Amino acid sequence: MIYLVHGQNEVDSRRFLTKLKVSYGDVREVDGKNLTKEYLERQLSESSVSLFGAKSAFLIDNFSSGLDILPKQSPEGLDLIVWSSKKIPVYSKHLKSFLFDKVVKANVFKLTDAVLSGRERQALILLDELVQSKEAPEKIIGTLNRGLCFLYFAKEGSMAKTNLPSFIQQKHVDQARGWDEKTVKKGMAKLISADLAIKSGSKPHLVLTNLISELASWPTTE
């Protein structure tokens, strides 16, 4: 099966992608920016099916090429997953499309996911919506702190102790790959400084904008 997860609503499409990945025993990933048909064919031919009978998948992240470079069907025993932040016209019956084109109402959890995944542009858009809807700054900072705590648990290998659903645990594990423990602790300190600045009379929107922009620029993306 070939799955296409696409559309401008990156927050929800990423959430869906995380849930989809959890259903596989093994997922190999490649960067889809400027991907060529020849390179993809070579990578697919080198991908192996799980030896333990679990489903395997090959993920093309940040896909920016045309669908014509994809095979008409995925290799035997291997599902192909394509993720793109753009809406891609689909004409093939061999491809299952999941379009996330409608941007839904912002909330603090989606903002936190965008920040911790390093999607600065998306995070700032969500922050602006939350500020416009008069979301409490302390709730935004508190949820960000909660997210950083889960990153720390993931880095320590103790996510199982949180009793969170498996797909949520996997989301934090995926996010944690872009962080190290020192940066997570630095982020927590930044949250405390931002909270004190707001309580001391600084404009919340300005403080939060600077905070979100800085935190979202820290994760490394491969």
TrEMBL record:
* Uppermost EC category: transferase
**Iron-sulfur recorded as keyword:** no
- Protein name from the UniProt record: DNA-directed DNA polymerase
Looking at the record, the residues that make up the DNA polymerase III delta subunit-like C-terminal domain are 106-210
* Gene Ontology MF, one: DNA-directed DNA polymerase activity
Q: Which one Pfam family would you cite for this protein?
A: DNA_pol3_delta_C
- A Gene Ontology biological process annotation? DNA-templated DNA replication
What InterPro entries does its record include?
DNA_pol3_clamp-load_cplx_C, DNA_pol3_delta-like_C, DNA_polIII_delta
What Gene Ontology cellular component terms go with this record?
Answer: DNA polymerase III complex
Q: Which family does it belong to?
A: Belongs to the DNA polymerase HolA subunit family.
Enzyme Commission (EC) number: 2.7.7.7
Q: Which UniProt key words apply to this protein?
A: DNA replication, DNA-directed DNA polymerase, Nucleotidyltransferase, Transferase
Q: Which reaction does it catalyse?
A: DNA(n) + a 2'-deoxyribonucleoside 5'-triphosphate = DNA(n+1) + diphosphate
Q: Does the keyword Nucleotidyltransferase apply?
A: yes
